[in-house]
Amino acid sequence: MTRSIQRRPLVAANWKMNLLPREGAALARELLPRIREETGFVDVVLCPPYPGLAAVADVLEDGAVGLGAQNSHWEESGAYTGEVSPRMLLTLACQWVILGHSERRQLFGETDEGVNQRTRAALAAGLNPILCIGETLDQRDAGQVESTVLGQLDRGLDGLTAEEVLAVAVAYEPVWAIGTGRTATPEEAESVHALIRDRLREGFGEAADAVRILYGGSVKPENAGELFGQTDIDGGLIGGASLRAEDFAAIVRAATREAEQP
Ligand code: PEP
Questions:
Q1: Which ligand 1 atom sits closest to the C-alpha of 101?
Q2: Residues 6+ apart with CB under 8 A from 196
């Protein structure tokens, strides 16, 4: 099947713990004119750290580029020091939230069960989750790519309806490729994306064909086109390269070129 009708590409910037609010706003201002035309073909989302959300939202005022946060909790309020609820993010004009990023899993002990709770709560509040899954190098070397990635997918989406899954973007991010400069080859990535798509079909039927599956892990202007050209790669979650307006704009343009293919 072609992606053109059902799956508009999505390119999301994960700024991680970088940029003060005024620096984030400046980067967004630098970026906007470079990708204005592309937003007619590709969904673009910027995910600054929490303190930068309001300043970046002001720059993105016209809504052509979306805004996302890098995590959210499952409760609406309460004694959860350091956490932020989906409703709080909605008041800051967020439409998206990254959940289950490998840095959250590895450095802050987040589990599949917790990621599932966060996903369900984000959906219930009206946010679009970007659910991150991916294997470590040890798991790849041990032949556990499929069991790891599909296990994270199953547990992350547990209890969702087909309608709800349409609001989710899945990001396949092999941990060994994040911030390392080492990218999965387009074929390596596509083979995992195809497994993810098949698993989504088993669980959610036809809705699976409309779910965006993003690739993340050292995407750069030089490799974005080939990655996005794969059948089941519907865009990217971009870390390091999203901190440079020129590079991120080039990656968005690569997604646009793929979107324009008949
Ligand atoms: C990420 O952290 O989501 C990511 C993909 O980072 P990078 O592009 O820097 O590998």
A1: 3
A2: 133, 149, 150, 153, 170, 172, 213, 232
pLDDT score for 262: 57
**What is the pairing mode between strands 213-216 and 128-133?**
unpaired
Contact 91, 61 (CB under 8 A): no
Per-residue pLDDT at 2 exceeds 70: no
CA 56 – CA 33 distance, rounded (Å) = 15
- List all residues 6 or more positions away from 186 whose beta carbon is below 8 Å from its beta carbon: 223, 226, 227, 229, 230, 233
CA distances from 24 to 123, 141, 145, 185, 245 (A): 26, 38, 35, 31, 11
CA distance 62 to 10: 18
Compute the half-sphere exposure of residue 64: CA atoms within 13 Å on the CB side of its CA.
15
Tell me the residue type at 69. A
Catalytic residue chosen out of the listed positions 38, 73, 101, 193:
101
Residue range 93-106, pLDDT digits in tens: 999 999 999 999 99
Task: For residues 173-191, give the mean pLDDT.
Answer: 93
Q: Which atom of ligand 1 is nearest to the CA of 241?
A: 8
pTM for this model (two decimals) = 0.96
Over 60: is that where the pLDDT of 4 sits?
A: no
Helix (H) or strand (E) holding 216: strand 213-216
Q: What is the Cα–Cα distance from 65 to 204, expressed in whole angstroms?
A: 29
Which of 62, 55, 144, 133 has its CA nearest to residue 99?
A: 133
Residue-wise pLDDT for 221-242, tens only, equals: 999 999 999 999 999 999 999 9
* Beta carbon of 114 within 6 Å of any ligand 1 atom: no
Question: What are the two backbone dihedrals, phi and then psi, of residue 71, each rounded to the nearest 5 degrees?
Answer: -175, 160
